[in-house]
Write a structure and sequence with these properties.
alpha+beta
Amino acid sequence: MHLLDASGLEGPSVIRQVRQALKAMIPGQRLEVWAERSIAVRDIPVFCANNNHRLVMAHQADEGLAVLIEKGRAGASADMGALAMGAASPATARPDPVD
């Protein structure tokens, strides 16, 4: 398993780093990503669905969100049915309100 700590990154920089890390991996390998919750909740599930990767797990914590992504095969259909912790599908996912 590979690890990407993107907790200090903002906006599209998180997705750029995730994309770059996944490019270096082979299909079936997994990438654990630590990111700021607001970005990860909204953008990572959509990125996975649009790029045929599988979001295996998402865990929310006070300091951010940890997600586990399995690299998919190019041209394969995305399987988003494995969202963990009762997360909504990417089409209905909403970021948690920020205080």
